[in-house]
Amino acid sequence: MRTSASVLHLDLDAFFASVEQRDKPSLRGKPVVVGGVGGRGVVATASYEARKYGVRSAMSTREARSRCPHAAFLTGRFHAYREASAIVMGLLRSVSPLVEPLSLDEAFVDLAAADLPDLELATCVAVAEDLRARVHEATGGLTASVGLGTSKFIAKVASDLDKPDGLTVVPPGTERDLLRPMLVTVIPGVGPATAERLRRAGIQTVADLELVDLEELVRLVGKAHGNGLFHLARAQDDRLVVAEREAKSVSVEGTYDTDLTDRKLMEGLLTRQAGEVAERLRKHGLSGRTVSIKVRLHDFTTLSRSSTLSSPTDSTATVARMARGLLADLDTSGGVRLLGVGVSGLADWIQEDLFGETTEEEVEPLPEVEVPSSRRRTWSPGMDVEHTTMGRGWVWGAGRGVVTVRFETAASASGPVRSYPDDDPELSAWRPADPDETAPAPPA
Fold first, then answer.
1. Structural domains counted in the chain
2. Sign of CA dihedral 411, 92, 166, 34
3. Name one GO molecular function term (predicted).
4. Global pTM?
5. Fewer CB within 10 Å of terminal CB in the chain, N or C?
6. What is the 3-state secondary structure (H, E, C) of the chain?
7. Residue 106 catalytic?
8. Segments forming the whole domain that contains residue 315
């Protein structure tokens, strides 16, 4: 463990919901829930105003509506989230070359690799305060909670202690005092099942866990998990902040305006995506052992499945066959809005034939697939739209042949509401010119 509090963890507050409030002036200061809006939907993120009513991530949308019926329930706008995330990650990399993103909205930063005069507590705190201010300015008002500590574990725990828009510093030597009163669930990997197993053994807090020897922990939760719990309960964490410079996977995915229900069509799309992935692998002289698929259902729930080969491959037929097999295990009867195929566990070689010869790849023609388009356009709550006369806005609600739009943007005041026939030719969905383009560089 370090002798300086030079590991920083930054976590954007209620990220999806905060981006929606930023871009929709009429929702600022009001409860917002982002996720699946249907009866079987799941909450992805809830604003702090909604959390006061007990709404939480991973809660069913049905329960969230019962707890906070006056909230705005919106589907996600991933182009906006990716853009905001890119700005923040750029800011972090301007401070240190060692930035380890955990997701779109959080990352570790190693200040020991930054160009700082020293790693004294006051210096690290000043960097953290400056970062929070720069994030707020560069993203148009988003806030971040930051933790500073001597390890990744302590920094991540600290960032959660003063939310939203807070900074918590854990000075060297105080880590165990901080952890002892906390529940064991604060430790990564202690989910409901492990917590219940520990509770039955009389272990509920980190202080309780600290009194248990390694042999007993291994008996309770297994060797690997027990060893990790033993060290983390004592604030012992030597993991490095690792900046991912090399691609660890190659993937292709597609999002569809109309939910897919035809299993044959989904298999065809996966096969074509597998072909694109395999082509990229071959182009860069790579192969991979693990094939995975990503499926986002109609209710915003995202599922992932993977399978690992005994040796790496760059074969279209092999990747496609495994992807279709993974799809077969999923219930997609309610409709699918996103499909993706990926290959990870990359290598720069292919397993040769046992007799020292390589064989030609099994040829599998890529199917011609046509994604159906709905004759009546789909208007999802929260989606960006544009009207030829009124300009930019977002979908307030839709149904029974009518779509209601509030015309406002992040740069405007709260705007007017208008309703139109849902096939009005003057109204269209709005998308950035290139949703995957790199966000502009953050201000210095």
1. 2
2. positive
3. magnesium ion binding
4. 0.77
5. C
6. CCCCCCEEEEEECCHHHHHHHHHCHHHCCCCEEEECCCCCCEEEEECHHHHCCCCCCCCEHHHHHHHCCCCEEECCCHHHHHHHHHHHHHHHHHHCCCEEEEECCEEEEEHHHCCCCCCCHHHHHHHHHHHHHHHHHHCCCCCEEEEEECCHHHHHHHHCCCCCCCEEECCCCCHHHHHCCCEHHHCCCCCHHHHHHHHHCCCCEHHHHHCCCHHHHHHHHCHHHHHHHHHHCCCCCCCCCCCCCCCCEEEEEEEEEEEECCHHHHHHHHHHHHHHHHHHHHHCCCEEEEEEEEEEECCCCEEEEEEEEEEEECCHHHHHHHHHHHHHCCCCCCCEEEEEEEEEEEECCCCCCCCCCCCCCCCCCCCCCCCCCCCCCCCCCCCEEEECCCEEEEEEEEECCEEEEECCCCCCCCCCEEEEECCCCCEEECCCCCCCCCCCCCCC
7. yes
8. 249-347
pLDDT-derived band at 13 (thresholds 50, 70, 90) equals: very high
φ, ψ at 284 (rounded to 5°): -100, 10
Question: What is the chain's percent helix, strand, coil content, to nearest 5?
Answer: 30, 25, 40
The arithmetic mean of pLDDT across residues 414-441, rounded, is 78
Give a yes or no: residue 52 inside a domain: no
pLDDT tens readout for residues 210-245:
999 999 999 998 888 899 999 999 999 999 999 865
Find, among 397, 432, 437, 441, the residue nearest to 418 by Cα: 397
CATH label of the domain that carries residue 221: 1.10.150.20
Catalytic residue among 100, 106, 175, 267: 106
Q: Is residue 299 in some structural domain?
A: yes
